[in-house]
Design a protein that fits this description.
Belongs to the F-actin-capping protein alpha subunit family. The protein has 322 residues and is of the alpha+beta class. The chain has seven helices and eleven strands. Strand 8 and strand 9 form a beta hairpin.
């Protein structure tokens, strides 16, 4: 009996030691919170933050640390911060001047090197085309003073591409939060095009974003365009379904006889690539019930009777039974 009690005590002690070993350290908890936040579906960063903070001590994630996580999330997902005057500021690594300072889309005043090296004409104050942002609240300051930096060597081409891309985004993107920006390289004949659209309707259990980034290498009478499109959607009514897909577009040559021709050609290339991805997704969903779900079913059900896939026959049988 004594041996049995001793063995029982030893077993309980081992279980307690295992429970103690399973406790995550503060660093591990912080990594988990960061992973959850960076993986948040479109428009659900605040909801994930609220749920994650309920699982850890309140002082685990400091305000500066949270701002850093939000900054990484916003830049990766090309989110838009809105100012009180309605101005949208596209948040991306392309347009980031400082951790909380961004160039305003469509300003045409600032040159951002696609490789990440920023170079600007000296100035004592910020220009009117810069905005400070709060990454956590996703808001931008209402105004910014000062004069713009000197225009770059390819300002005309940048402005033409920005106008064409802006018209395309305005006509084709139905999202309330949509933005397009074109940044000019300071030491290379390249333009960076960034487009983002986000729709969030959490009351009806869905959200999604569509974002793309493009590089335009200018040449003599022509340009090389390449880029990638990323789509993410989340539907969570009575479930949790997410879609994440992307499309990479290799270099293609477009006409660039004039800035206007370049803008029209770049916008047409982007539209064709994004439309192709949209049509592919639509075709996939149209065929899902007839092909994908059918392939997931086993050949014979328990009744050993083959499933009748003729919808009209099933409807007819239901009507005859009434």
């Amino acid at each position: 009996m004594a041996d049995f009690e001793e063995a029982t005590n030893d077993g309980e002690q081992e279980e307690e030691e295992e429970e103690e070993e399973e406790q995550a350290s503060p660093e591990e908890k912080l990594q988990i919170v960061q992973h959850l936040l960076l993986s948040s579906p479109p428009g659900e960063f605040d909801d994930v933050l609220s749920d994650a903070m309920a699982l850890v001590p309140g002082d685990l994630v400091s305000r500066p640390m949270l701002a850093g996580i939000a900054r990484a999330y916003n830049n990766a997902n090309l989110r838009c911060a809105r100012a009180a005057d309605g101005t949208l500021v596209l948040l991306s690594e392309r347009g980031e001047l400082e951790p909380t300072l961004y160039a305003v889309p469509g300003s045409g005043a600032y040159r951002v090197d696609p490789r990440g090296t920023r170079s600007f004409a000296p100035r004592s104050t910020r220009g009117p085309f810069e905005r400070r942002v709060d990454h956590v609240a996703l808001t931008a300051e209402a105004e910014a003073g000062g004069g713009p930096a000197a225009p770059g060597a390819f300002a005309a081409e940048r402005d033409a591409v920005a106008a064409a891309v802006g018209a395309y985004v305005g006509a084709r993107y139905g999202a309330e939060c949509k933005c397009g920006a074109v940044y000019e390289s300071d030491d290379a004949s390249e333009l960076a095009v960034v487009i983002s659209g986000e729709s969030v309707n959490l009351r009806n259990f869905w959200s999604g974003n569509w974002r793309s980034e493009w590089t335009v290498v200018l040449g003599d009478g022509e340009a090389l365009v390449s880029g990638a499109v990323k789509v993410r959607a989340h539907y969570f009514e009575d479930g949790n379904v997410q879609l994440q897909t992307s499309k990479t577009c290799g270099e293609a040559t477009v006409a660039a006889a004039s800035p206007a021709d370049l803008g029209a050609a770049v916008a047409a290339f982007v539209e064709a690539a994004e439309t192709d991805l949209q049509n592919g997704l639509q075709e996939m969903y149209d065929n899902m019930s007839a092909e994908t779900f059918k392939a997931m079913r086993r050949v014979m059900p328990i009744t050993r009777t083959k499933m009748k896939w003729n919808i009209h026959e099933i409807s007819l049988n239901k009507n005859l039974r009434k």
